[in-house]
Here is the input.
Amino acid sequence: MAPRPVYFDCDTGIDDALALVYLMASPEIELAGIGTVSGNIDAKQAAVNTLDLLAMGGKTEVPVAVGAMDPLTHSFSGGVPHIHGHNGVGDVELPHTDRKPETESAADMLVRLAHEHPGELDVIAIGPLTNLAIALKQDPSIAELVHEVYIMGGAALVPGNLSAVGEANIWNDPEAAQAVVEAPWQVVLVPLDVTLENAFEESDREALAASDSALNRALADILNLYFDFYVGEYGRRMCALHDPLAAAIAVGQITATRAPNVPVVVDDTQGPGRGQTICDLRGQRTGTHDVEGAHVRVVLDTDQQLGPVLLARLLDYAG
Ligand code: BDR
Ligand code: CA
Here is the structure.
């Protein structure tokens, strides 16, 4: 089967880097274009990181476009150096490529790719949703052209990670997130409910560190800082697999076993609920079912743990 075309939107980012290399290693999909956005780091540095990782993996044909530097209604607050490092990749110096980003914006790239692959393009978005919202505003018809939109974001029935109820990608640009869940396309929301249940362990990191591939060894280095951060969360060196889980569900290696289509709204008020993904899961206790007219599938369970699947695919990748 021909690989499915994907537009990938990221704020690279340590778990973004894992997701990116996983997608580079996945024959089921073809990275038709990558847009970057400010989140873990600003959009320009995210593009540098993305280009460097692509070059290390020999994927120099994949175009990268810099996207929104600021969220829709406010200025970018500067990222999270204590989690992702000052450069977004755990303060590791990757070998730098000479490749530059495209001159088109990430939103322009998404609109162009949606028209070039009508009914076929999947979107995988693992950062704040600013570029997607800008693209929808520029050309609302992309909602009919895009096949499916996979989003790492939100917290359905569990607490947030950036506020009591807000998950980072949504909390960083709630206005954009609301525009994206409101648009009439099929969204698959991969929230903290499932991403926090999937771990990469120190033994997995060590397996990458021992690999023949310089790219895998770089990932092992990059993960160090992230693993340190997670000691405060889980009591041991490991990390949750936020962005890679959304990527693996999009690729089809992981199957969502409970994922009803339900009404979802994002709180974009200025109150304590700002950034919350309010998923209407009423009436699902006696069996999962789709709500008529709803088009946001909220992933609440998956068929297997991602950690071993991710490690195997990274180790298999010749790069
Ligand atoms: C999300 O926030 C970012 O820090 C991660 O890269 C992931 O996309 C998790 O809440
Ligand atoms: Ca991310």
User: Anything to note?
Assistant: The longest helix spans residues 214-234. Residues 67 and 106 are 4 Å apart (CA to CA). DSSP finds 13 helices and 13 strands in the chain.
